[in-house]
Write a structure and sequence with these properties.
five-stranded antiparallel beta sheet; about 600 residues; about 40% helix
Length: about 600
């Protein structure tokens, strides 16, 4: 049987033809193959392929040694050929496939930042692995062309700024951080040399704006810049366990939705609210409007970032009459039946103190609180004096900065020279401005038995001891609860009265001050604070509407009685069942018209003192 080259494998045919070519001899391979300088196995190969007419049938029988050399040589050449083919194949792939050559690679990963959860474990802030688009300027052959390609994906790209960064000596330049999977796919298809992806952990806020003024936000490098994110930045960077907050996602949603609705209905410039556990000091909800989406902090105005609950300072109006009554009652200066003449306005120099709805008679302390008499509150304060008033308010922590879990915390503002006129106006909430959260913390002590507790946004387990300080007698606190209940049943807070719970509260309507320290009658702060169930208070709800405009939703009124009181009533009606608060015994059988029903019938024939 004859064997021709056509019967040989293709790769062997290739080398056979190469050996027969003139190039083979010009390169010296033929002579070297047949020379004695070549290894024995090479010489055997030369013998195999030594003639141009290579016919297996014409070969002489080989000796055993030559046959072994031939087989070894064949094996070595086959290995050499195999490696050469693989190398050529890889080279061909790299040269013929520019798409693969420039496919962006993914590098890097940042350390995870701890999650933030509500008191029930609901995630409020977490991390999501995302990719950033970056460029190594050293590998960019045509910066202008690259920037033009990138602009097809991001039309709003600042092309000039990017070109300037590409001209720098940096190792890499960010194009965009936190890109979407579709954007990453589109980038990869552009086949841009020097482009790569950097995988990082990006902070995500699943509830968007719902907790904005509690959580704050962090920057692209996961550094906290506001709120809890900033206050506990180091802890969140170092720990792996979630940061457990005191807030309740359900309560937060109710409070924000009610505040937002009222703000929109009354065309107000802002709103704020707070829900506080008066026994533990835990904040269950905190809302300031307008707010912002911490997932995208570039689309909002400056006012959206202003926290009215903790950073804002406001004169809170007649809510302060609770403190005035507490001061006089606790010091034994008055009883609830003590009478004060409120028939005439009080005049102090150029200042005149009057009531919106004056009466031509004397009022008891209980009536002064129920019907919110400015003259009556001023006369109670006169019975106490300046020093006693300052000492009492200082004991409640209202004259010094309050420690809180948010870095955005305002400081109280009050007169340096506490004169007689200041004594009287502060008695009904004008002349002392402070953050609402600071006032609510002090009000909680008025109803919880007299213990001032530091408010917190961190979860406090039931087993954790609560540190507090007594500021009034428990008997005084009980009396104040009765007075606050009368405000709701008979006075300015009647629109907060709802089915199911006995609420005790107090309205506050204050005129805002302009830059020249002149009170503006057309610019009001309408507030209400309510505690429930008032017979044994557990929770306090505060709401404030900034510059409401009277319309059909408020019977044309702008005062707290018509604006803030019904709002708080609606909030309590919704959160009471969520918090599993039992209905008040008297309310189960004798249910008054709820705030919701009053709103539905327009509050017709219901007239309240407007302070």
């Amino acid at each position: 049987m004859s064997l021709s080259t056509r019967d040989l494998p293709a790769h062997v045919q290739f080398w056979h033809k190469l050996r027969q070519s003139a190039a083979w001899d010009r390169l010296g391979f033929g002579a070297w193959l047949r020379s004695e300088r070549a290894p024995s196995w090479v010489q055997s190969w030369g013998q195999i392929w030594g003639s141009r007419r290579h016919d297996a049938a014409s070969q002489l029988p080989l000796s055993p040694v030559a046959l072994a050399h031939r087989k070894f040589g064949q094996a070595m050449i086959m290995l050499t050929i195999g490696f050469a083919i693989i190398g050529l194949r890889l080279m061909g792939v790299s040269l013929s496939s520019p798409a693969r050559q420039h496919t962006p690679v993914v590098v890097g990963a940042q350390v995870k930042r701890a999650d933030i959860t509500d008191r029930n474990g609901v995630i409020l802030a977490t991390n999501l692995p995302m990719e950033d688009a970056a460029i190594d300027p050293r590998k960019v052959t045509d910066p202008v062309q690259m920037v033009n390609h990138l602009a097809t994906i991001w039309p709003d790209l600042d092309m000039v700024a990017l070109l300037q960064r590409l001209a720098s000596s940096r190792n890499f330049v960010y194009v965009k951080r936190g890109i979407s999977p579709r954007e990453a796919q589109n980038l990869a298809q552009l086949n841009l040399p020097g482009l790569f992806f950097l995988r990082e952990e990006h902070r995500i806020y699943p509830h968007a704006a719902e907790f904005a003024h509690i959580l704050g936000y962090s920057d692209v490098d996961n550094n906290g810049l506001a709120g809890i994110e900033r206050r506990y930045n180091s802890q969140l960077q170092q720990q792996t366990e979630p940061l457990h907050l005191s807030v309740d996602a359900s309560i937060q949603h109710v409070l924000r939705s009610e505040l937002l609705q009222t703000k929109q209905q009354l065309n107000a410039i802002g709103a704020a609210g707070l829900v506080l556990d008066v026994r533990t000091g835990e904040v269950l909800a905190l809302v300031s409007l307008p707010d912002y989406n911490p997932n995208d902090t570039n689309r909002h105005e400056g006012d959206n970032y202003f926290n009215r609950v903790s950073l804002g300072r406001y004169e809170m109006g007649s809510i302060f009459k609770i403190f005035t009554a507490a001061m006089a009652l606790d010091n034994g200066l008055v009883t609830v039946n003590s009478m004060f003449d409120v028939s005439q306005a009080l005049v102090s120099g150029p200042y005149v103190i009057h009531d919106d709805h004056p009466v031509n008679r004397a009022m008891s302390v209980a009536e002064i609180i129920t019907y919110s008499s400015n003259i009556g509150a001023a006369r109670i304060a006169l019975a106490a004096g300046v020093e006693r008033q300052k000492e009492f308010l200082a004991g409640l922590g209202l004259l010094s900065p309050m420690e809180f879990d948010l870095p955005e915390m305002g400081k109280p503002e009050y007169p340096k020279n506490w004169r007689m006129i200041n004594l009287m106006t502060i008695a009904y909430g004008h002349g002392l401005a402070l953050p609402p959260v600071q006032m609510v913390a002090a009000l909680a002590a008025m109803v919880n038995g007299g213990i001032l507790i530091q408010p917190t946004l961190l979860y406090r387990p039931d087993s954790e001891p609560i540190a507090g300080r007594r500021v009034i007698k428990s008997s005084t606190s009980a009396t104040l609860r009765q007075l606050m209940r009368q405000v709701v049943t008979n006075g300015t807070g009647r629109f907060s009265d709802i089915a199911g719970y006995d609420i005790g509260g107090k309205t506050g309507t204050a005129e805002k001050i302009d830059s020249h320290h002149v009170y503006q009658k057309h610019r009001l702060i309408a507030s209400f604070v309510g505690a429930f169930p008032i017979e044994a208070p557990r929770y306090m709800v505060f709401a404030m509407i900034d510059e409401p405009k009277g319309n059909e939703f408020s019977q044309g009124q702008r005062s707290a009685a018509y604006v803030a009181a019904p709002l708080v009533g609606r909030v309590i009606a919704r959160i009471g069942p969520i918090l599993a608060v039992p209905a008040s015994p008297a309310r189960a059988q004798n249910v008054r018209l709820s705030a919701q029903a009053i709103a539905q019938n327009g509050g017709k024939n219901a007239k309240l003192p407007t302070e």
